[in-house]
Every structure is written in structure tokens, then in C-alpha cells.
Amino acid sequence: MPRRSEEMLMDLWMSLLLLWITCVPCVSMTPIIGQSKSTQTGGSAAVASGLGEGQRLLSRAKRGWVWNQMFVLEEFSGPDPILVGRLHTDLDVGGKNIKYVLAGEGAGTIFAINELTGDIHAMKRLDREEKAEYTLTAQVVNADTDEPLEPPSEFIIKVQDINDNPPQFIEGPYRASVPEMSTVGTPVTRVTATDADDPVYGNSAKLVYSILEGQPYFSIDSNSATIKVALHGMDREIREEYLVVIQAKDMGGHMGGLSGTTTVTVTLTDINDNPPKFSKSLYEFVIPEDLPIGKMGGKVKANDRDIGENSKSTYNIVEGDEGGMFEIVTDGQTQEGILRLKRPLDFESKRAFTLKVEATNLRSEPSSGGPFKDTATVKIVVEDSDEPPVFSKPVYQLEVNENAPINTVIGTVTARDPDSSVSLVRYFIDRHTDLERQFNINVDDGKITLAKPLDREADMWHNITVTATEVRNHSQISRAIVAIRVMDINDNAPEFATEYEAFLCENGKPGQVIQTVSAVDKDDPIQGHYFDYRLVPEMLNNPNFTIKNNQDNSISVLAKHDTFRRQKQEVYFLPIIVADNGNPPMSSTNTLTIRVCGCSKEGIVQSCNVEAYVLPIGLSMGALIAILACIILLLVIVVLFVTLRRHKNEPLIIKDDEDVRENIIRYDDEGGGEEDTEAFDIATLQNPDGINGYLPRKDIKPDLQFMPRAGQHSGPNGVDVDEFINVRLHEADNDPTAPPYDSIQIYGYEGRGSIAGSLSSLETASSDSDQNYDYLREWGPRFRRLGELYSVGESDRET
């Protein structure tokens, strides 16, 4: 028999045994009995069917079977409906006409009752996992009238569980991780399986866990489903990932239980358990001596079997670089050690280096006792290169006096070829730094000489660049800066610090200080300035002023009396000689201007002009200037106002008798045709020359009218129509003052008349016989026919 059938048969026998044990006699208050657990109440005698017929049951007077629930096995699939139980009432005695009625959940569809016997059958296959119990109501009614014979009674039919659902891992498959080299028993993860069977009834939902695949590396707790490390020393560098198959079995793991499986992928995470290891114990590099500072000279690499942060290392030079010539840095992308130059190499001084390089892990495990390390040897051979000349100093500072003559030697710069095969050196001045060519240099020995006179007061410093070039290789060039300081000599005389103008009050006192005067000197002597002031010899006995030395390179000018008057003399000029203490001493004569002014009692200057005497009392010059400015402003405002009013009253268009053409203002107007005589002034067409041969325009402002150009107006006699139109067309096309909008150019023209006069006989006193029309034939083909007509008419009259 298949395994599934054996399990179902065993569950069926156990259920029947449970039903038999739970059926006990009791007292009931209802006339209905059934197969169930029961309690005792008052009632009449009844019999429980569902047992075999003919069996004699114990009974008591006024007592019967009391019930409140029934049981039915799930997943029963026999050929006939399964009997759930039987209902019976005390009213069912003899041939009494009664019937049983069933109502509630599943009545008539899932459960059916025999109206006569009260047997309840399950009509469909039931699944406890879908619905575990059903609540129904039973009642006895009259078979003919359906009149209830007793109150309805409620009972429950419970679906008994069988082991028909295997365990399931809802969250599987699982992924977990654990550090490598973990100790035995280290928890990895926990899995969980669920069973849809009844966890209360039997062992259908009691699960036991086991490992089907993944031993001996991992184990699992059979009850808690916790996966643990089972093998010591699992190394990620050997194997990183493990697949573990977990089984969950119900029925407590006994035979006949159902099972489910899931997979757990366990990944060993890295710890820093491997040291860095150089791929070679000895590295050799050849570096040219002209390698620029900071450039790479070689690479080293220490490999680490760990990953991530555990594999990162830092590099250091631990031996062999006493002069600090090199440095080694870590490339963050490749984890290589980059050997770089910190100081220039010199093949002639040292041709080889031996370095010891160490690689150290950045991280270390607490139990490792410190970071892992490894060392390697690096040998560097310096390769000779053709180097540029080397100056004895990178910066030279020279001095020269500003009065030094041309070709004076200022100083010397020197450079040498550092190569073993020494080459001659030539010197040059970079003229971009000496645009005025004030200096020269000897190409052979580097002596710098003066080419032009220098002035310290113009430029105190001159910074030039000198280049040194190898004779055999002109591409090898080096540069040095030469700072030339121009030393001062006493070649400038002192002078007043500013243009002084002193003011002297008429009511001043003798000995009053009029002005304090100081001087400046463009020279800059080492010992500092000292100025000597004195009056010019012819003013030594000046009756009006004197000077006083203030002992601070300044003097005070004093008044000798108090009788200064503006009417007598308004301005005084006081020449003063200022001399310095240089070698040789320099001096200059400066003039101090002193004005006599009227002052208040407090000594405040009020006016320094003689004209102030004629001014009104109480009005100063500033007040008069302000009044005059206001009057001028008012006059300007009045003139502007009158001009604007006059401009506003002027008409903006030209008189009609001067207009010979019209403007189109609106471009959507429809003309009046040939009969429209108001569109333009027809009278102007009678005068083709206009006013003095010039036709004014209305499409520009009147004040912008231009005068007719010479040679473009018509002659006084015999104006040709085509010529007139061409002239006007040329004028309209080439007029620079014409506005940039369309206008109608009127070319209507009637002419001045014919030189032949009128053809009508009404305007002549002569008769027809006096007229001679032969000249009409001379006028061309247009008048030939007219001449023939008049000639024929004349001959007819004669005949």
C-alpha cells in the first residue's frame, strides 16, 4: 500500500477510537441526541445511533444523550458520503409524523440530513486548513405543516486534522555569512519552517530539523533550527562559499511524517589573517639623473590574499635613504608602491642607492599581535644625463652707484657644466627682463656692465635674468636672477614739500607765525636728511618777515610788524634758500607767497582781496557768488520755457501750397479713383519747379528739410518729363534724411506748354489763311498726320 494511504488509514482508526472513548451517557434537556462529548441535563430517554443496531445501551428514565459538537475527518474521499452523526428526539415515537431540519454553515451543500432518521452526512471532501469547524442548527418540525415541535438547537461540527501538509520554508532560500576561522559552535543563522496542520491535535505540526548536505562544516539544532559552525579553521582563501541543505520533518521526525527542504548559502567573510608579500625580494631600477622632482622612478607591489580593507598596505623606506632623496607612496587603486624623487640626483656625486622597503597592513586583528609586514630590497642605479650648467648661486644681488659711468663692471655671475665631460659655458641676458637694454654681459666670463646711465629716483632696483648655455649643446640652458640695486648719490636739491601760500592778518601782532615750512629731498642718504634754511642775501635785512629754525627740518615764517595793509600791498613774495647736507651739498631757492587778508577779532581770515572794501556791508564774496548763480539759473529756466512754448506753437506740417506729394499714413485705405481730386493738391502739378526748384516733403520733420543738391534741379526752360521723373526717383532713393517708411512719390507733371503755342484759332486774330502748318511735319512722325490734315484743308479752301 502506498505510504500516503497508510498514513490516512492510521489517522482514521485513531479518530474512530477517540470518538468511541468520548461518547458517554448523560442527561439532556433536549429531545435531540447525537454522537459527541456531552454533559448531563434533565430530559426524556433517548438512544444514540451511530452505533450498530441491536446493541443495548444503558438508559435512565427521563435521561438521554446530550451533545454540543461532532467530529468529521478531513480529506475523507470514500465512495459514499461519510456519516457524521445521527440526531434523534423523544418525540420520534411510533408513527408520529415528524421530520428533521438542518440549517447553518454548509447545510444542504456540505452537510445533508435525512429528514426521517436524522442522519447527518458530509457530502464533500473537507479540508481543515481551509475551515476548521462549522456551526449548524437542528430542529424537529411537523412533516405536514412544517410547524416547529421544539426550539432549535445549535451544535458544531469540527473537522479533525490529519497530517496532509508538509513543512514549508516560507523565507527560503537563505543566505548567511560568518567570519572565516570562526570557532566551533559559532551561530551562523536561523531558519524557520511552518506546517499548516493543527499544532494542537497530534504531532502533525511538530517539526524536527536536520542537515541533508553541508556536513561536516555546519550543524543545526533540531528544535531551534539554528545553524552553527561545526568545523574548526575554515579558511576563506581556500573556500569562500558553502551550500547547506536543511530538512524540516513533522510528526516529530518519526516515520510517516512529511518533510520540506531549503538551502542556505553560507559565505565566509574575510579577516586579516594573511600578511602582505612582495612578489620579488629584490627590485632594480635605472633612473636618469635629470628625472624631475616628484616624478616616478619605479614601482613595487606586495600582494595580500585578503580582500577589501584587509588587503590594503602602506609602504615605507626603512633603510638606505639617509639623504632623503626618495619617497614611496601607495597607489590607492592598484595598491602598488610608487617610488618618487624628492631631491635632484647627481651622477657625478653618487651613482647608486640600495633601499630597504617595507609593506605594512593598514588593519590588524586584535588577536594577531600587530599588523603584518614584509620587506624587499630596491637597488637604484643613477644614469648619467647631459645636464644644463649650474650657477654658483640661484640669485645674485649686486650694487652700483647711480652716477656710475657707462661700461662700469657691476658684478660677475659664474656657472659650470656639472657633467663629467665639462663643456664651456656662454652667458646671455634675457632681454625680456631688460627691455631698455641698460646692462650688458660678457658671454665668456659673465661680467655684467652698465650700458646706460641709471637714476635711483626713477628705479631703485633692476631685476634681470641671466642664462647660461653649454657651447656643445645649446638646448641645455639654466637661468639665474640678478637683482641690481642702484645706490644713491646726492644729485637732487631739496625743495618745499608743497606749494605754500600763507595768509597774514592786517591786525596781526609782531612775531606772529605766518606759516610753517618744511622741505623734501628725492635723495636718500644713509645718515638721513638735514636741511638748512636761509633768506636770499638781498633779503637778509627784510623789514617785513624773518624765519625761525624749528630744529626738526622745518622753519616758521614770522611777521616783524603789525602795519600790513591790503590797500598798500596785497601780496608779498619771500624767497628762501633750502640746502641739504650731502656731498656735495645741493640747494634750491623757493618762494613763499604771503597774502594780506582781513581777519576777525579771533584771527579768522575773512577776505584777502582789495575789492572786498567795495562790497556791501554784511555780504561776503561767497554770498554774492551764490546770489549771482541763482540769477543765472532763473534766466536759463525762463529762456528754456519760452523756447519750448514757441516750439510747441509751430505747425508740424508744411503749408499745402508748398506740398507737391502726399504721404500714406494708413496702408489699408482704399483710394477714390480718378475722380478723387482731394488726395493731392492738383495745383502743385502746375508748377513743376516748386519753390526755387525744390519740392518739400511731408514724410520728414519740417526742421530736417534739406536743401536741394546742386545739379539735381530742373532747368528753367524746357523741362523734359522723363528727366523730371528720373531726378525725383533718384532723389527719393538716395536721400539719407528720408525716414525708413514707405511713401508715395508723385510724378504727375503737365509741362510748361509747347513752343508752337496754342493750336486753337480762338486765341489769334489772324485768319486761317494766315496760318502756316508746314512746321508740323518737322516735329516728327507724331505730328506728321496733323500737318497733313491742316495742309489738305488749306488746299481745299483754295480750290
Automatic annotation (TrEMBL):
Where does the record locate the signal sequence feature? 1-29
Which GO terms are recorded in the biological process aspect for this UniProt protein?
adherens junction organization; calcium-dependent cell-cell adhesion via plasma membrane cell adhesion molecules; cell migration; cell morphogenesis; cell-cell adhesion mediated by cadherin; cell-cell junction assembly; homophilic cell adhesion via plasma membrane adhesion molecules; morphogenesis of an epithelium
Q: Where in the cell is it found?
A: Cell junction, Adherens junction; Cell membrane
The protein's matches in InterPro entries, at most eight in alphabetical order, are given as: Cadherin, Cadherin-like_dom, Cadherin-like_sf, Cadherin_CS, Cadherin_Y-type_LIR, Catenin-bd_sf
List the GO molecular function terms.
beta-catenin binding; cadherin binding; calcium ion binding
**Cellular component GO terms, alphabetical:** adherens junction; axon terminus; catenin complex; synaptic cleft
UniProt-listed Gene3D superfamilies? Cadherins, TCF3-CBD (Catenin binding domain)
Q: How does it sit in the membrane?
A: Single-pass type I membrane protein
**Keyword Signal assigned:** yes
Q: Does the keyword Zinc-finger apply?
A: no
TM segment ranges: 613-642
Query: Which domain of life does this protein belong to?
Result: Eukaryota
Residue ranges of domain Cadherin in the record:
89-169, 170-278, 279-391, 392-496, 496-618
What PROSITE patterns does UniProt report for this protein, alphabetically? CADHERIN_1, CADHERIN_2
Could you list this entry's UniProt keywords, alphabetically sorted.
Calcium, Cell adhesion, Cell junction, Cell membrane, Glycoprotein, Membrane, Metal-binding, Repeat, Signal, Transmembrane, Transmembrane helix
Q: Which CDD domains match?
A: Cadherin_repeat
* UniProt-listed Pfam families: CADH_Y-type_LIR, Cadherin
Q: Per its database record, what is this protein's job?
A: Cadherins are calcium-dependent cell adhesion proteins.
Name of the molecule in the record: Cadherin 8
The organism that produces this protein has a lineage beginning with:
Eukaryota, Metazoa, Chordata, Craniata, Vertebrata
